[in-house]
Predict the 3D structure of the following.
Amino acid sequence: MFDLWFSTKKTTMGHLTLQQRYALKAYLECGKSKSEASDLLRVHRSTVYRELNRNSTKQGKYNPDFANEQSEERKERLCTNRKFNTEKQQLIEYYIREEQWSPEQIKGYCDMKGIEMVSHERIYQYIRKDKVDSGDLYKHLRHQLKHRKRPVSGKHEVIKNKVSIDQRPEVINNKERFGDFEIDLIVGKGTKGAMVTIVERQSAMVMIRKLENGKNADSLAETVIDMLLPYKNVVKSITSDNGTEFARHQKIAEKLNIEFYFANPYASWERGLNEYTNKLIRQYIPKKTDFDTFDKEYVKQVQYKINRRPRKKLNFKSPKQVFFKGVAFAC
């Protein structure tokens, strides 16, 4: 049946669609070889081999949703990297070495003059990498990176007793059960103000709460507990990034009686649903806006709107419908 979804003409396309990924999984589970699957999908067999090699989980399992999230994240990451070309690199190095301009000044000047330029944070990343590679760009900055709390090596450990996502069971990785959540923050203009976003992996139901004390770890822990306590009977795990705001993860885990996992550094695709959901939120709460302009009622209405939207992955049911059905079934 799956082969009827595709055209009869074989293609050498480099990437599979989500529909094709589901079909690939079905073929493999039916005992088809990779070559047979490529014929049925009407793609070159190298496409299938590359798909399985690049987009399977660390345990070697192939999950279409996980594969699609990894692929989309990779495309976005590559797109960002391509923007940092040799011309921009030379311009950045000139202004830093010859004029001792800061990344913010470089970005601001280029914007004013209509010169395409990457963000000032991306420039800082380039400077930190240059330092790791024994370069001297950082020496031309006024503060020489001394004001940055994060070490250039990126190896400083600040969160104790973390449990890696690599130890997370397959039942979570494959979204096979209800009650596993991803958590993240979105921040306001100038990194002032923050909101915590929590997404249930199976239903895509999101909860949003404005943090009155910003990224304070103790305050965040109390807020997360307050948000999830009404659903304590169904919450099984939370997965976060490595932000220090999650340093009180053990307090959250103990209060809710759950497992708390941390994704690998610089691997946002491991929390792909949360990343995607944050982009939906940004439709109503754009980047570089002052969070003081959004009161609690507005944030609540944003949450309601997103959770009422029909989703293709949910057979056009809304996250709210699927979530509360899961809650009712668990009880």
Observations:
- The domain at 165-330 is CATH 3.30.420.10 (Nucleotidyltransferase; domain 5).
- Residues 1-13, 148-157 have pLDDT under 50 and may be disordered.
- Strands lie at 180-187, 194-200, 206-211, 237-240, 259-262.
- The longest helix spans residues 64-83.
